[in-house]
Structure to design on (216 residues):
């Protein structure tokens, strides 16, 4: 079974890798695709170019044999819709005759809380199983539309032979965000304790996040 952990990774930080590795261990997933969201439809523009975010993601994943940096959304023109990505992944799986276990889509609570704004959001669980992680410091109230949706699909343990299940996994997470990493850098502070050493080196080498301009 594979997991998918999507993000803008602007930049990828230890909270991301910790979350992916913790879910892989808890659910026995063989690999997690760390999927760079190139042109997200439901959030503001990133601060750094796709190229920099992609290089940093590759550096962070290279440290862990079960994390795969995934650029399929970078290579697809237009807005990066999760629904389209999952549809394409299912088609790939069929074409090579791989085992048909649906992937596990992993997301933090803050991202889950925005689910109803995603393109074809209520069809996404037809293509995967959804795992929601706590996000310390970012537990906003749940969208009422999600409460029923979740209640109808929640499970205590994922049955990997089918899609459509949702699981809240209360694993301990790290209290770090890309916003905080960027803020620290703007203030001239070190982020070596928040990102992988090679990501830290890359940020220093390219002097990233010193200004607040965003890339569209
Ligand atoms: P930003 O601060 O710019 O919003 P972020 O740190 O939330 O960035 P994203 O790339 O937007 O990072 O998030 C990708 C995914 O990782 C989302 O599902 C988000 O909820 C999750 N995530 C980010 N940080 C953590 C963390 N510390 N623990 C658990 N999940 C996290």
């Amino acid at each position: 079974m594979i997991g998918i952990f999507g993000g803008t990774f602007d930049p990828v930080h230890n909270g991301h890798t910790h979350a992916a590795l913790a879910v892989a261990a808890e659910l026995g997933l063989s690999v997690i695709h760390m999927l760079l969201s190139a042109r997200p439809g439901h959030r503001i523009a990133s601060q750094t170019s796709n190229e920099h975010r992609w290089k940093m993601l590759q550096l962070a994943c290279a440290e862990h044999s079960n994390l795969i940096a995934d650029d399929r959304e970078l290579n697809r023109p237009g807005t990066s819709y999760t629904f389209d990505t999952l549809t394409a992944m299912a088609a790939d799986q069929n074409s090579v005759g791989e085992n048909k276990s649906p992937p596990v889509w992993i997301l933090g609570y803050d991202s889950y809380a925005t689910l109803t704004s995603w393109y074809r959001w209520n069809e996404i669980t037809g293509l995967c199983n959804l795992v929601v992680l706590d996000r310390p410091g970012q537990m906003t109230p749940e969208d009422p539309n999600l409460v029923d949706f979740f209640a109808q699909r929640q499970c205590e343990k994922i049955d990997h032979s089918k899609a459509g299940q949702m699981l809240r996994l209360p694993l301990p997470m790290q209290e770090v965000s890309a916003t905080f990493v960027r803020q620290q850098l703007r203030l001239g502070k070190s982020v070596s304790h928040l990102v992988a050493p090679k990501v830290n080196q890359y940020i220093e080498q390219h002097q990233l996040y010193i200004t607040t301009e965003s890339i569209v």
Summary: Residues 2-175 form a domain with the Rossmann fold fold (CATH 3.40.50.620). The longest strand covers residues 2-7. The first helix runs from residue 14 to 27. The chain has a mean pLDDT of 90.
